[in-house]
Amino acid sequence: MTAHRAIELIAPSGYVYDHAIAARAVERLRDQGHTVINTEAMERRSQRFAGTDAQRAAELNRLADPARNLPDIVLAVRGGYGAVRLLHGLDYAGLRQRLTGQPIAIVGHSDFTALQMALYARAGLMTFGGPMLVSDFGAPVVSAYTMEHFWQAITRPSFTLQVNAPQVQQASVSGTLWGGNLAVLAALAGTPYMPQIRGGILFLEDINELTFRLERTLYQLHLCGILARQQAIVLGDLSGGKIYESDNGYDVPAMVQHLRSLVGIPVITGLPFGHIADLATLPFGAHARLNARAHGFTLEVSGYPHLRG
Fold this sequence. Notes:
There is one protein chain. It is globular and about 55 Å long. Strand 7, helix 7 and strand 8 form a beta-alpha-beta unit. By secondary structure, the protein is an alpha/beta fold. The model has no long low-confidence stretch (mean pLDDT 97). The chain has two domains: 152 residues, Murein tetrapeptidase LD-carboxypeptidase, N-terminal domain (Rossmann fold); 143 residues, LD-carboxypeptidase A C-terminal domain-like (Glucose Oxidase, domain 1). It is built from nine helices and 13 strands.
């Protein structure tokens, strides 16, 4: 465990529907010696969202206030839907000025991908795809893998993720590490919030999507030219979608095989990222080197803001 940290909660998407789980997560963090700020975010509700758009955007924009002490960690309460509604209302210039070069970890995944994309595209800010308050810190049994990798990633200047998952393709490439939830990411194609990354390593995950919907979304990125500009695609968890008898073997592995024939770059599988218990933490915008062989792959990551002390 690292030093005691100031953790500020934000709720940019859905509201907390089980307060006992959220309270359990906060209690765990406090028992470890951390200070948890803005627990009010767990209580707000407006329709399906954790407060009005203005309230949720204000939580992020106040990070630009030079009169406030910055927390060590900004932690998303949960995902769901709603972050995209905030993108036009964020103070990108102020956030860039206040946060650039600061040792702060802004963390979340799933719907949080929209904010990660926008903050990188409009303010050049690196964030972390990683655990969230409810689903991870509040889990009935907290994953030792998730916690170990989270604290390692946000407190060290570099790390190497090793994955022992058999691979069809080999790769030895380097570039900007970026990505997140496939549906959320693809929905920003053609907008000012899609980062213009060339030669990147794109990681993707999604949940409860039918195979054809996954493929259709990947085709959107392909037809936009986004996939062809990358060095490699690294797929995380894509589980939860139903398979029907009429699919006749058209499942996620079959879709991935077609994707490989389409894009002309390595497509690596087995990344421990997504809506899963054992979750790696990945810095969005960091430099990464990917080495994939038949027995698995490594991802060496460096050049991102990290906590000190």
